[in-house]
Amino acid sequence: MLQFLIRRLTGAVMIMFLIGAFTFFLFYTVPQDFAALSCGKNCTPENIAVIRENLGLDKPITTQFWEFMVGIVAGRDFAAGSCPAPCLGQSFASGEFVWDSIMDRFPLTLSLTIGGLVIFLFLGLASGLLAAWKRGTAVDKTVSGASMVLSSFQIYFLGPIVLGLLVYQTGWMENPKYHEFTEDPLAWAVGLLIPWAVMATIFVAQYTRMSRSTMIEQLQEEHVRTARAKGMGRKYVFFRYAWRGSLTPIVTIIGMDLSSLLAGGVVTEFTFDLAGIGRLAVESSVTKDLPLTMGVMMFGAFFILILNIIVDLCYAYIDPRVRLA
Amino acid sequence: MTTLTKTEDTPSPTGSDAFLSVRDLRVRFSTEDGIVKAVDGLSFDVERGKTLGIVGESGSGKSVTNLTVLGLHNPKTSTVEGEIVLDGQELTTASEKDMEKLRGNKVAMIFQDPLTAFSPYYTIGRQIAEPYMKHTGASKKEAKARTIEMLDRVGIPQPAMRFNDYPHQYSGGMRQRAMIAMALICDPDLLIADEPTTALDVTVQAQILDLLKDLQQEFGSAIVFITHDLGVISHMADDLLVMYAGRAVERGSVREVLRAPQHPYTWGLLSSMPRLGGDINEELMPIPGSPPSLLNPPTGCAFNPRCTYVDTVGGGRCSSERPPLADGRAAACHLPVDQRQDIFIDQIKPRLG
Q1: Which of A299, B150, B195, B310 would suit a FRET pair with A179, their CA atoms being 20 to 30 Å apart?
Q2: Please, which residues have CB within 8 angstroms of residue B315's CB and are 6 or more apart in sequence?
Q3: pLDDT over 90 percentage in chain A
Q4: How many interchain CB pairs under 8 A, A with B?
């Protein structure tokens, strides 16, 4: 198990390095003078030269790349002060350290993700299990049909409708707004309720269909029949035998959704006018702010890699056949 | 053969000394294509301590019959008529709760493929102990002790260590032993073995069969042994029931049926079986055609499209009239008994060597 973990983590570090390198060099193929971009109006050649030196753009690209990579591990010093590890550089546009910008936005993204996840996992799995339990009945058909309809909605379609209805028409709710959880948990929850609900509506359908179909598949397994043949009750067999087998595909999907949500839900954030990681990513690429774009990319990649490892660990926990492999 | 003296169409088997008594069982499945008559008027008895073998091709209704005895058919898509009386208790009308108490306790089942029949997610020990705890109310500790005892009894080496192994850590033969341990842990009165050796090597097969026989003597259970392997059945069973297209076509003691079979289908089964001592150049005689669709079974005798003796009977009786299966040692065929004997001795027996 330890060996597995070491192997996977080493792999993850290498992939992170490659992603960093790829983004970095790709960005430099763009024919743009970043110093000129940050210089603004009334720019003199002297100013540009100063900026270039401040940003380190006067050094060769390989040196810049090396400094960037070292900064992530050990931190580095800028003209604006020292940037502690993990230092993802300094924004061209604002001069802020990238890590600080990301950390500014991350609580919102994290809140959106966790709240949404809890709701859609709970509803999705519960309705999927119910449909599988009542397979072929009116309940099953209703749940399956509803999930079909819901899964064809989009956030940018459903979001404005809900906002229009609950905020602008009736005034029952405020526009979504982020409050610190540590300061006011209630305001935090109320402020994000609409985005959560809309996200959950879109995501829930996928989990309903997934859990229903894998459960039905599992219930036809022979070991489920054996369990019934030895006198175990229907409920017991359903939750112990069939459910256990359904966990693997469900965990896979959760891992994928979670990593993409943590990397920032661009559409959700724009729909509800919230400033999270997704918005940061878009803004940074519009302003051609290389360090920020790279930082956000690597931050997202980090979650994808870590969650992949966690999902693999879950497989080993769920299925004993995977453990020694 | 007291087992076989029951009249086929007597609806009330009360007072019968048979432990399991199936009367005129009909199981139908509704599918998208229509109604499948998987079992169509089947009757048999099994006595305590005896073994009834059921043979027949795939799809002849062997497995369905026995899943129905345990009430494991899907009630939404299937209908069951007739009677299944186990030790005086009628099972077709029993509640799900009563059936749950029976399964794994009074009636246990051994399945064909021990790899898929165990859940890969739990230890063998847990899966064997589970029904014991449920049916006897034993504590975890007691159940563990009993499980280890059973694993030892079925010949698993180092049972205490093997208790915590997962099914994939067992070999095929060991898994089947473990399955037998699981079936026998509550000391069932009736054991249904559905092709228990089909997925195993021949050497392991022989060990498992011997084990089953030993355990039967020790526990005194009745066994219903389903197989398509006539060699296995001659080793295991006391009585034999030959099934075709959801019906019994021949029954009798194993000796009678295998030595002097009376039904053309049984002749076909025996002729299509290779013999170790046989001549290498001797051709096998497979039964022509394939098993009938149970959606739309042939009229009259279901075997008539594949039977070579239709013309011998003559008069189109085979396709218009269903031959009844008499009581006791009998075969459901329009050929007169004497003629059957002659055909067997003159034409079939020489082929069997």
Answers
A1: A299
A2: none
A3: 28
A4: 75
DSSP collapsed to 3 states, chain A: CHHHHHHHHHHHHHHHHHHHHHHHHHHHCCCCCHHHHHHCCCCCHHHHHHHHHHHCCCCCHHHHHHHHHHHHHHCEEECCEEECCCCCCECCCCCCEHHHHHHHHHHHHHHHHHHHHHHHHHHHHHHHHHHHHCCCCHHHHHHHHHHHHHHCCCHHHHHHHHHHHHHHHCCCCCCCCCCCCCCCHHHHHHHHHHHHHHHHHHHHHHHHHHHHHHHHHHHCCHHHHHHHHCCCCHHHHHHHHHHHHHHHHHHHHHHHHHHHHHCCCHHHHHHCCCCCHHHHHHHHHHCCCHHHHHHHHHHHHHHHHHHHHHHHHHHHHHCHHHHCC
Least confident of A279-283, B79-83, B289-293: B289-293
Cα(B266)–Cα(B331) distance, rounded to whole angstroms? 9
Among A223, A233, A240, the residue with its CB nearest the CB of B118 is A223
Cα–Cα distances (Å) from B306 to B57, B227, B274, in that order, read 13, 22, 20
Instruction: Give the C-alpha separation, B65 to B57, whole Å.
Output: 14
pLDDT in tens, A90-134: 887 787 888 999 998 999 999 999 999 999 999 999 999 999 999
Distance from A219 to chain B by nearest Cα, in Å?
Answer: 12
Chosen for mutation from A223, A247, A314, A318 (greatest number of chain B CBs closer than 10 Å) is A223
Query: What pLDDT does B5 receive?
Result: 43
**Which of B76, B97, B101, B119 should one mutate to test binding to chain A, selecting the residue with the greatest count of A CBs within 10 A?**
B119
Highest mean pLDDT among B10-24, B279-293, B329-343: B329-343
Greater pLDDT, B20 or B280: B20
Mean pLDDT (chain A, rounded): 86
Could you give the C-alpha distances from B322 to A13, B39, B249, B299, B345, in angstroms and in order? Answer: 76, 15, 11, 7, 25
Closest CA to A285 of A295, A293, A277, A276: A293
Look at A245 and B111 and tell me if their CB atoms are within 8 Å.
no
Lowest mean pLDDT among A47-61, A147-161, A288-302: A47-61
pLDDT higher than threshold 70 for residue B12 = no
**Distance of alpha carbon B212 from alpha carbon A131, whole angstroms:** 41
Per-residue pLDDT tens for A143-192? Answer: 999 988 888 888 888 888 888 888 888 888 888 888 888 888 888 888 88
Three-state secondary structure call for residue B223: strand
Kindly determine whether residue B134 and residue A232, on different chains, have CB atoms separated by under 8 Å. Answer: yes
Round to whole Å and give the CA distance between A77 and A135: 63
Give the residue from B252, B277, B266 showing the smallest Cα distance to B307.
B266
What is the amino acid identity at position A214?
Answer: T
The model's pLDDT over B263-276, given as tens digits with 9 standing for 90+, comes to 999 998 888 887 77
Tokens of A283: 């803004």
**Residue B195 in 3-state DSSP?**
coil
CA distance A210 to A128: 7
- Give the relative orientation of helices A290-318 and A61-74 as an angle to the nearest 10 degrees: 50
